[in-house]
Amino acid sequence: MRAIGYVRVSTEEQATTGVSLATQTARIASWADLNGYPLHTPTFADAGLSGAKIDRPGLAQALAVVRKGDALVVHSLSRLSRSTRQMLDIADHLLKIGADLVSISEKIDTTSASGRMVFRMMAVLNEFERDQISERVSSAMQYKKSKGELVGGVPYGKTLLADGITLVDNDAEQAVLSEARCLHRDQLSLRKIAVTLAAKGFRARNGKVFAATQIMRMVS
């Protein structure tokens, strides 16, 4: 009967105020000591990986060493996964081999029917939280676009003002866009459009001939 620890932080959390790997590891060690579980070493970790990512080396290693009677211990369910489907798959896998799942923050485990019920509810809420964050980010980006503000890199045909936010038309590049779209309406291939623009002296920002992918974005 061992405690198999798994810890994770995402890149965003490392840069802000997330619970560090060291803190998670220490709390897992304290839980193991308090509950009489020998702690397997090392504690498995994934640094800078999203909880929505399925392919995580640290998690795969932790699941590979878990055996009957062990407990996979995490600081919180969000550290284990942000995907309800993946979280339930992990719980089913542990159930089949006779191991338990313990989340310290939520104070739940899967050794009882009530614990399994709470676990499934928490898994659903975790995914709901992730979806809400995604929606907020998407809405914010759409709002910035509608205001003519920068989102990502400066698109071809635009110039970024000194405020670092506002985008305005770049007349020279807008002329290239208009020419490319006219050629596209004449049903020229992307490659032919690039060749024609080059023949007219038009070049990409790096001074090279436009690539087919660039032409595609220009005429879309």
Per-chain topology:
Layout lengths: L2 E7 L1 H5 L5 H14 L9 E4 L9 H9 L5 E4 L2 H4 L3 H14 L2 E4 L4 E2 L3 H34 L11 E3 L6 E3 L1 H15 L4 H10 L12 H8 L1
Helix pairs in contact: 5-6, 7-8, 8-9
Number of distinct beta strands:
7
Q: Count of helices?
A: 9
Could you tell me the radius of gyration in angstroms? 26 Å
CATH architecture annotation of the largest domain: 3-Layer(aba) Sandwich
Main CATH class of the largest domain? Alpha Beta
**What characterizes the major β-sheet?**
5 strands, mixed
What kind of oligomer do you see?
Answer: single chain
Roughly how much helix do the residues carry, as a percent range? Answer: 40-55%
Instruction: Enumerate the strands of the largest sheet in spatial order, edge to edge or round the barrel.
Output: 2-1-3-4-5
Structural class: alpha/beta
Instruction: Please name the fourth-level CATH homologous superfamily of the largest domain.
Output: Resolvase, N-terminal catalytic domain
